[in-house]
Design the sequence.
């Protein structure tokens, strides 16, 4: 039971990290693409 609790907590932390990382990655990707469009 304790192991399951730790696992679910770890999964929640991982999903939170992904949830925070994805918008930053998306914004940087769009920004980079925007710069490429401006250059060309």
Sequence:
């Amino acid at each position: 039971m304790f192991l399951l609790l730790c696992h679910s907590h770890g999964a929640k932390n991982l999903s939170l990290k992904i949830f925070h990382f994805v918008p930053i990655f998306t914004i940087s990707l769009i920004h980079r693409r925007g710069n490429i469009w401006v250059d060309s």
Summary: The mean pLDDT is 76. DSSP finds one helix and no strands in the chain. The two ends are 58 Å apart (CA to CA). The CA atoms of residues 25 and 31 lie 10 Å apart.
